[in-house]
Amino acid sequence: MSPEHIALVKSSFKRLQPRMNEFVNMFYVRLFDTRPELCLLFGGNIDQQSRVLAAMLDKIVKMLDAPDALVPLLRDLKSRHAAFKVKPEHYAPFGEALLWTLEMMLAREFTAELRQAWREAYDFLATNMR
Ligand code: HEM
Fold this sequence. Notes:
The protein has one domain (about 5-130): Globin-like (Orthogonal Bundle). It has 6 helices and no strands. The protein has helices at about 5-15, 20-35, 45-60, 65-85, 90-105, 110-130. The mean pLDDT is about 95. The structure holds protoporphyrin IX containing FE (HEM). Protoporphyrin IX containing FE (HEM) binds next to helix 3, helix 4, helix 5 and helix 6.
């Protein structure tokens, strides 16, 4: 990712911080609307899961310009996700739901360039977790 795209992802995510609960809740509603079968992978408390996802995304976004530190974190997440029975093909619908939610929440601020920057960021995550 270019430094410009990293900066775009960081600043847009920062703008979402005051609405982070709404963001992650909308994300899971969208994910389970589009791929109901994925709901079965999750143990139960989606509020708790929303909080850990928000905290992890925050950590990851802050580390986007430090890939040497980020990659080992993603590898750890990857092995935990394998234990949760997450399969490589689950990453695409997860990414689509994430981009859709960003678009809904950021509305006109979600420009084509910002979409591209987020897609690159998610591809980096997914490639290192799949
Ligand atoms: C690519 C970005 C992703 C991130 C940043 C992420 C983040 C997290 C985090 C922080 C946890 C809490 C447990 C832990 O830290 O080990 C978790 C759990 C989990 N994630 Fe993900 N995840 C991602 C992708 C996915 C995908 C693609 C799926 C499949 C649909 C998935 C399904 C799950 C499940 C089933 C759990 C366990 C929930 C439970 O305890 O019942 N995740 N994820």
